[in-house]
Design brief:
The protein is an alpha/beta fold and 478 residues long. The chain is built from 20 helices and 18 strands.
C-alpha cells in the first residue's frame, strides 16, 4: 500500500481521483493549494504526489524540489493538460518523476502506481545494499542525501562523473568519496586545471623522457600514468584551454598518450571525475568548451547545493568541526551556544563549507580556554555583516517596543498631559469614569449584539440605568 497526496484545487476531480486510488487499496489525502500541501506532508509518510501545475497560490512546477525534500522523499507526478508536450517536458526538467495528462485515464493511473511502488521498493533495497563511506561529508539534508545516493551509484560503475557546485561546497570531498567507495586499487590523482603551467602542461600530464628538453634531467611519469588503475580528478575543468581540451579528449577516448621525447605510446586504465563551478552547457553553447569533451565527461552528475540552501546541516557541521578542531589543537572540548548557532544560520556563507570551516576555526582560536563558543568569537567580518543585516531588518510590528512593554498593563491614561495645570481630583475622577463608561457600554452592546435584555443581565444594570448611560454618552443602539 502506498501513501498518496493529490494537490489540486478542482474539488470534483480530486475527490473522484481519491476514491479511485482508495479502491485500489492505497491511502490518499487531498490538498487544495501549495500552502496546505506543506502542512499535510508534514504529518504523513508520503510515497507519491500528484501535483497540478496551476494552483491558487503558485505554479506547482516551481515547488517540486521542496516537495521532494520532505523526509519520505516522495516521487512527484505532474498533472498536465492533455497533449501539452511542453508542459510534460518542463515537468521532467524540473525534477518530476513522470507526468499524467488530463483527462486522467484509469489504466494510466493503475500503471503509474504500479511502476512508482516498484521503483521506490527497488530504490530502497538498493539504498540498503549500497552503504557508502562518507569520510568528511557532513549533512543529513535532502540535497546532501541525494548527492550521496548518486555518489554510491557512481562508485559502483566505471562511468565518468561531473561534479558541479559553487566554490567551497566540497567537490573534491565527493570526488574522494567516489574513489574511496569504488573497487579501484590505484591512486586518486588530483589535477588542478586552473594552475597548470602552459609550458609544462604536457610534461605534467603525459610525462617525459630524460633529455627531452633542457630541464629534463630524468624521465618522469605524468599524472595520467600515476593514475593507472585509479582515478583522475580534473578540478576546475572549465579553465582548460581549447587546445588542451582536444588533447584531453583523445586521452579519455583511447586511454593512451605519448610522453614528451618518447616514440612509444603508453596506456593507463583510469576513471575520470571532473569538477567545475561553472555551467559547462552554457560554455559549450558559447564555444568555450568542446561539446564532444562535455559528452565524454558527462556520465553521472552530482550537483552539490550551496550551504545557504541546507540550513538543517549547520548544527551537524558546527559540532563536527568544533570537535575536530579542538582535538587537533589539543584543547578542551567546547559547547556551542544558541547564540553561536543562530549566528551561523543567519550568515549567507558565500564561500560555502570552506568559509564555514575557516570561520569555526577562528572562533575556536578566539575562544581560548573558555568552555563555550559565542557569536562574538566569530571572525569580525562575519559579525559586521550580521550587524548590518540586523540593522536593515524590518522590526516585527506584532511585538511591543521596549517602552510599550514597560508600560503597566493596568494603567489608566490620565485625561491631561504632564506639565498641564493639575485639575481638581473631582474633575479628573469624572473624566476618567466617563471614559470608562463609554468604553464599557460600547463593548457591552457589541458583545450582546445590541440586545437590551441581554445587556442588562450581563452588566447588572436596570433597563432605566442602561438607557440613562446611553443617553449621557450619546451612544445609539444599532
Amino acid at each position: 500500500m502506498a501513501n498518496i497526496l493529490i494537490i489540486d484545487d478542482d474539488q470534483d476531480f480530486s475527490r473522484s481521483f481519491q476514491r479511485i486510488i482508495e479502491r485500489m487499496g492505497h491511502s490518499c489525502d487531498i490538498a487544495r493549494n501549495i500552502k496546505d500541501s506543506f502542512t499535510v506532508l508534514g504529518g504523513m509518510d508520503c510515497d507519491l504526489i500528484f501535483l497540478d501545475v496551476n494552483l491558487p497560490d503558485g505554479n506547482g512546477l516551481a515547488h517540486i524540489k521542496q516537495f521532494q525534500s520532505f523526509a519520505s522523499l516522495p516521487e512527484v507526478v505532474i498533472l498536465t493538460g492533455d497533449g501539452d508536450s511542453d508542459g510534460a517536458a518542463l515537468a521532467i526538467a524540473n525534477g518530476a518523476w513522470d507526468y499524467v495528462g488530463k483527462p486522467v485515464s484509469l489504466n494510466n493511473i493503475k500503471l503509474m502506481l504500479q511502476r512508482t511502488i516498484a521503483y521506490r521498493a527497488s530504490k530502497e533495497l538498493g539504498r540498503q545494499q549500497r552503504s557508502v563511506k562518507r569520510s568528511a561529508i557532513i549533512g543529513e539534508s535532502a540535497g546532501i542525501m541525494a548527492c550521496l545516493e548518486t555518489m554510491g551509484k557512481a562508485a559502483g560503475s566505471k562511468s565518468n562523473v561531473i561534479i558541479t557546485g559553487e566554490t567551497g561546497t566540497g567537490k573534491e570531498l565527493f570526488a574522494r568519496g567516489i574513489h574511496d567507495n569504488s573497487a579501484t586499487l590505484g591512486k586518486l590523482v588530483v589535477i588542478d586545471c586552473a594552475n597548470l603551467s602552459a609550458h609544462l602542461v604536457e610534461s605534467t600530464l603525459f610525462g617525459h623522457t630524460k633529455g627531452s628538453f633542457t630541464s629534463a634531467h630524468d624521465s618522469r611519469d605524468g599524472l595520467f600514468k600515476l593514475a593507472d588503475n585509479g582515478t583522475v580528478f580534473l578540478d576546475e575543468i572549465a579553465e582548460l584551454g581549447l587546445d588542451l581540451q582536444k588533447s584531453l579528449l583523445r586521452v579519455l577516448q583511447e586511454h593512451k598518450f605519448r610522453p614528451i621525447g618518447s616514440e612509444k605510446e603508453i596506456s593507463s586504465n583510469f576513471r575520470v571525475i571532473a569538477a567545475t563551478n561553472k555551467d559547462l552547457r552554457i560554455l559549450v553553447e558559447q564555444g568555450l568548451f568542446r561539446s564532444d569533451l562535455y559528452y565524454r565527461l558527462n556520465g553521472h552528475h552530482i550537483h552539490i547545493p550551496p550551504l545557504r540552501e541546507r540550513q538543517e546541516d549547520i548544527d551537524l557541521l558546527a559540532e563536527y568541526y568544533t570537535e575536530k578542531l579542538c582535538r587537533e589543537n589539543k584543547t578542551a572540548p567546547k559547547t556551542l551556544s544558541v547564540d553561536f548557532l543562530h549566528a551561523l544560520k543567519a550568515y549567507h556563507w558565500p564561500g560555502n563549507v570552506r568559509e564555514f570551516v575557516n570561520s569555526v576555526a577562528v572562533a575556536v582560536d578566539n575562544c581560548l580556554d573558555e568552555p563555550c563558543l559565542y557569536s562574538h568569537h566569530l571572525p569580525i567580518d562575519i559579525r559586521i555583516t550580521l550587524v548590518k543585516k540586523a540593522f536593515h531588518h524590518k522590526p516585527d510590528k506584532t511585538q511591543p517596543t521596549l517602552l510599550e512593554a514597560a508600560r503597566p498593563t493596568n494603567a489608566i491614561p490620565l485625561p491631561f498631559a504632564p506639565g498641564d495645570d493639575l485639575p481638581a481630583l473631582r474633575e479628573v475622577r469624572e473624566m476618567v469614569v466617563g471614559q470608562l463608561e463609554i468604553t464599557y457600554m460600547r463593548q457591552l452592546l457589541e458583545l450582546c449584539a445590541n440586545d437590551v435584555p441581554s445587556a442588562c443581565e450581563r452588566s447588572g444594570l436596570s433597563r432605566a440605568r442602561l438607557y440613562e448611560l446611553l443617553k449621557k454618552h450619546s451612544i445609539r443602539l444599532k
